[in-house]
Amino acid sequence: MKFHHIGIACTDIPKTANFIHTLFNIVSETEILFDKYQDVYLCLLTDEFGINIELVSGKIVEGYVKTKQNLYHTCWEVKDITKTIEYFCTSGAVLISKPKPAVLFDNRKVAFLYTEIGIVELLEGKIIG
After folding, report:
1. Beta carbons within 10 angstroms of residue 34's beta carbon
2. Which residue of 25, 40, 73, 108 could cross-link 48, Cys pair, CB 3.0 to 4.6 Å?
3. Cα–Cα–Cα angle for 39, 57, 12, nearest 5°?
4. 8/49 Cα distance (integer angstroms)
């Protein structure tokens, strides 16, 4: 597994992106996209060190924002999403969103699990190992 990004729940992506720009040296930012599979709006910002910050807005995160729990999830890129889900679940995680295409990540599959460390997103990638 390789760390990919941190997910931040928000109600206003442009406003949150502007705030992040004032704090960090952001070198790239995607357009705001609607992901019909997750029913959310998304934007990915990348800082000068290659750290990705995903902004997530929509009904699925409203509860988090209302309770000021803006840190929504961590995302880990994995070689085989099915095997990694099985491994997580045998370790006590609960699958909360089955694998589906992720518009923001070229339709690679993503899945979400609830774990002892909060919500974890798995992104099927091209990593080795």
Report:
1. 13
2. 25
3. 145
4. 18
Question: What is the rounded CA–CA span in Å between residue 51 and residue 98?
Answer: 26
- Give me the half-sphere count of Cα atoms (radius 13 Å) on the Cβ side of residue 112: 14
Report helix, strand or coil for 75. strand
Structure tokens at 114: 């609830």
> CB of 79 within 8 A of CB of 69?
no
**Residue 27: what pLDDT?**
98
Under-70 pLDDT residues of the chain: 127-129
CA trace torsion 33, 13, 50, 120 (10° rounding): -80
